[in-house]
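Problem 12. The chain below contains 293 residues. Write out its predicted structure in token notation.
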Amino acid sequence: MKAAFLPDRGVVKVSGIDARDFLNGLVTTDVTLLRPGLGRFGALLTPQGKITADFLITEAPSGHGGGFLIDSPRALAQALTDKLGFYKLRAKVAVENLSDSLGVLAAWDGEPAIKPDLAYADPRHAGLGWRILVPEELAQKAADLIGAEMVDSSAYDSNRIAAGIPRGGLDFTYGDAFPHETNMDRLHGVDFDKGCYVGQEVVSRMQHRGTARTRTVRVMVDGPAPEPGAVLLAGDKPVGTMGSTSGDNGLALIRTDRAADALDAGMTLTAGGIAIRLAEPHALRSAPKQTVA
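Solution.
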């Protein structure tokens, strides 16, 4: 088993007697189903349905003060804290940015020998393994406890990319992407039965009308990796943008209808002059509707 401390991740805590209902009325996942040891994937959206911040969330046991711990991009942790505070109004909740004292250890390629407090399985994809919320100075001790070898965070990124999991800021732009475009509907990140939350109307409409035409897909790179944001071309026509890469694996945000037409016409996809192949060409034509497990 491998483990890596993720320096790009932060932790926001929401506590108080109204915390569960407060969060459930704001985010895409059903917070009423959370309990200690269980994690869920979700996001806070704009009223127009675009992603402000995506995150994993778990409930802290009473021994850790209870409340809910949000594993979010560290660069967005304070903005997320402020935004949740803005929505607080008269709700009896407290919102804190704990990123200076609590971080995220990812562990994969096996099962933990012992499951520490504040550990939960990553709900997005089985290949992503486990998350453990722990101070950075205790990361090695936690890795030893679960029987994992500590490796660099770049190894986790390689595993994430191979699993086809997008990362905000590299594979899509916060404030400019809908959940369907980042596959949140396929990664157990949107609960379509939970009722209202910010941006819910737009997301539900996209789901039921099947109007998502842009998707994050896995690609194979035949040469040096293009930079994230490089335009993906079919001939001279743009069909998407490149995201993060590792070795010959990569992710791209693609207009699926345009890319499918290009493949049907026998055209080669390129980015920065480098040939790009779709890892799963059939994914352009299949859009399974999946809610939270």
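Discussion. The helical segments are 19-24, 74-88, 139-146, 153-162, 200-209, 256-264. Students who got a different answer should revisit the alignment rule from Section 12.3.
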